[in-house]
Structures are given as C-alpha cells and as structure tokens.
Amino acid sequence: MGIFSRLADIVNSNLNAILATAEDPQKMIRLVIQEMEDTLVEVRSQAVRTIAERKQLERRVRTMMHEEDEWHRKAGLAIERGRDDLAKAALAARHSVEQSREALEQQIAQISDGLDQQNDDISKLQAKLADAKSREKALSIRARTAQGRLKTREKLYDTRIDDTLNRFDQVERALDELEGKAEAYDLGRRTGRPSLQEELAALEIDAVVENEFETLKRRVAEKKNAG
Fold it and tell me: Would the pTM count as exceeding 0.70?
C-alpha cells in the first residue's frame, strides 16, 4: 500500500504535515508526487470505464422506451380487434418494461452523481499535484542553495586558506622590514643636486655671515686705531 490508500486520502491530505514529519522531505515529496500521478491515471481510467458503462445503460433505456411504445401500440390494436385480454397483457408487459427502465434510469443517475464527484476529486487531485510539484521545485532550489552555502563555508573555514593568508602576511611583514631598513639607510644622506630653496637659504646664510664678519672686522680696526 502506498502513502495514500484512497483518493479521498490524497484530496484531504495536508502536505505541510506530511513533509514536517519526514526525515527526508525531498524524497517524501517525490514519493507523494509519484503516488498522486499513479492515482490520477487510475482514477481517469476508472472514469473512462464508468462513462462507457453509463452509455450502455443509456442505450438500453432508449431500447426499453421503444419497447414501451410498441406494447402500447399493440394494446391499442388488440382493443380495436376486440381482444381485451391481449390488450391487458400488452399493457402489463409495457408496465414491466417501464419498471425496468426506471430502475436503469436510477442507476444512470447514481453513476452520473458518482462521475460528478469523481470529476471534482480529479480536479482537487490535479491541484494537489500542482502544489506538490511546486513544493518539490522549491525544496530542490533550497537544497541547491544550502549545498552552495555549505561549500562556501567550508572554503571560508578551510585551514589551507588560512595558512596561505598567514604566509602572505609573513611575506608582507618581511617586505615592510626590508623597506624600512632601506629608508633608514638613506636617512641623513643627501644625494644629487640641492634644490632651489636649499641654494637660496645657503645664500642668505652666507650674506648674514659676511655682514657680521665685515662689522666685526671694522670694530676691531677702529679699536686698534683708537689705541
């Protein structure tokens, strides 16, 4: 026996409840879909057989209606010929056929009601099947997304990546140290031609020194002459 034992079980089923209690929701939804599709094929085949049976009964009803007319005609003919006994017998036969026809019509009505209910159940089953397929697609997308996230997380927390990044850090620190040594080595060293500002500053200093020198030299000469 499958997940569903009867068509009514499927129509009245709650997919959320079924999936909530399943260990593997994806596997369960696939089984549910397969069960629904198989049931749908079976129900449709049964409906075809039932419709064929109803058509046969309808043909029998039409035949009986024709028989009733014939017995009624024969009863009238017997009365015309003065055969009341035959007329009554013909009417009795007509009544018997009429009862059989009415019984068949009741069967046809019951079959039609059953087909209407079956058609309604098929529509509900198709809706359930569409819902189940939609759920299966959503679960499949969620599963792929979760697997992708898991692979990403595994890469993020992969120790090999951490080791590689640590080696990069070590190399960067070593380069920083080498660059620092080179910059320290160049400190205090002037290479190349002095800049324009440096030359102008040197001229100003020379002028001040020369001026002080001339002033001091003049004072010394004046003091010497005075003595």
Answer: no
